[in-house]
Amino acid sequence: MPVMLAVQEAFVDPLPEKRVKNRAQTEAAIFHAARDLLAEEGFQGFGINAIARRAGCDKQLIYRYYGGLDGLLDAIGADLGDWVKERIPEDTGGMFVLTYGDLMERLSLLYMDALRSDPLICKIIAWEVSKDTPQVRRLAEARSRALAKWLDRMRGSLSAPKGMDAPTANGILFAAIQHLVISSVVTGEFAGLPLRSDKDWDKVVASIRRLVRGIYG
């Protein structure tokens, strides 16, 4: 019997591929269910049972493939980092980038456009910055690391003006952009500033350019 089983297995090559494919599909279903649930309901509704129901799978598979909620949060954090790389091109798009100020102007506007085009990411980030829990910090740290690496890679050999605290200035600039975009999704304005029409955003773009030039010259 063992010999017969060995012979049979030798002629069933497609089965391992099928199992791998099914696992990959299940992992993807779990991941997307977790990401969507987090965006829609926040951490209050983010649980193993709810994710399993939405993914249409046994909850034990979440532990098997991701190690539980912490593993899923790590995967979502990594995805947020990939989102930065996928949404924002690393080329200059025909724009002459001669100085650090040129670069930061372009990256600021690209980041704003990327956020505006993905409301789901905005919801996740809104939850991320509104709660202070180990789970939220896990997400925030993963996204911050990804953004810092992206900025460093895009910067290349360019450097900020002497004496300028570029990390702090850039952090404030990107935080402001992020808050404006999230406010536009939630209320359509911020501190009386309308953020609904293209004309509204044209004004924001012009102001960001002035701010960057005021910082970096």
Automatic annotation (TrEMBL):
Alphabetically list the UniProt keywords: DNA-binding, Transcription, Transcription regulation
Give me the positions annotated for DNA binding: 47-66
> Pfam families, alphabetically?
TetR_N (PF00440)
Ranges for domain HTH tetR-type? 24-84
- Transcription among keywords: yes
GO MF annotation list: DNA-binding transcription factor activity; transcription cis-regulatory region binding
Q: Which SUPFAM superfamilies match?
A: Homeodomain-like, Tetracyclin repressor-like, C-terminal domain
The highest taxon in the source lineage is: Bacteria
The keyword DNA-binding is assigned to this record: yes
Q: Cite the InterPro entries for this sequence.
A: Homeodomain-like_sf (IPR009057), HTH-type_TetR-like_transc_reg (IPR050109), HTH_TetR (IPR001647), Tet_transcr_reg_TetR-rel_C_sf (IPR036271)
Fetch the PANTHER family from UniProt.
HTH-TYPE TRANSCRIPTIONAL REGULATOR BETI, HTH-TYPE TRANSCRIPTIONAL REGULATOR RUTR
Protein name, as recorded: Transcriptional regulator, TetR family
Organism equals Pseudorhizobium banfieldiae
The taxonomy runs: Bacteria, Pseudomonadati, Pseudomonadota, Alphaproteobacteria, Hyphomicrobiales
